[in-house]
Hints:
The chain has two domains: 2-204, no CATH class; 210-292, Lipocalin (Beta Barrel). The chain has eleven helices and eight strands. The protein has helices spanning 2-12, 18-44, 47-64, 74-90, 102-111, 113-132, 135-147, 151-158, 162-175, 178-189, 198-209; strands at 213-217, 224-230, 233-238, 243-249, 255-258, 263-269, 275-282, 285-292. It has an eight-stranded antiparallel beta barrel. The chain starts with a helix and ends with a strand.
Amino acid sequence: MDDMRTMVMTVASGEATLAERHDAFEGLVLAFQDMAFACAYAVLGDFHLAEDVSQQAFFSAWRNIHQLREPDAFPGWFRRIVLTECSRVTRGKRVPTVLLDDGVLAAGMSGNPQKGIETDEIRKAVYAAIEMLPVSERIAVTLFYLDEQSHSDISAFLNVPMTTVAKRLYSARARMKEKMMGEFKRKISSRRPSRNASFAQKVRAGLYDEYVGRYEFELRPELVVTIVREGDQLISESTAGQRNVLIGGGRRGSELKTAEFDGRGKFIRNRQGSISHLLYFEFGCQMGRAEKIG
């Protein structure tokens, strides 16, 4: 808990460098990636959508960490972000539920058709049983069987007492046969993000890459600032010949500063949450507004 608190405080800090904030946030990603994925999968029923939604939830948490007043409340706060991202996906349309991997199923049937049919029947039964669970139980059982999360961790993430977690797990087990639970555990565990470094790497790259692009100043269209990523550094290059290393600045996480002098950029987001404009300041005075053009 102390480590989590320290990481949250570092991410929200206006004094830490961008690299330090990203390192701290990567620690949070590693700690909560499986929980985010399990929660999203329990709601959406689709492995690929669950991974996409989990990544978007981390991006949203990064952008809005300043809204979190108490670092210890991060698990429950982050869960609400995951559920919000799930709602955006499901709003106005039905999400196809895909519990099983068609490739795995096809391979099993080609090697042993009878066994493949039996496996398919088991998986369909698992799907039907999971689908019938209330959402609260579905989330609890998915969190538990994804990587055998402790009741304490699940309690913090769901923001409910451990007794409630135990009741939900007991109820879910009572509704599902042991064979079904074993198949569900095997399948969900094989998809957990922590099985390799890919998920965390994608999130880290995304935190840097959202700034990357070309920014054209509205009153001076001949002046274009290009932000590129070089390893774990962001570099700005302008058509005026300037090249600067950018560092984090500002508690709200929407600003970057030049390391060499008192230059500051404030990034504006559109309704979709994507960066659309850059406001540039020098020595506290706004010098111009640039539109992100690519």
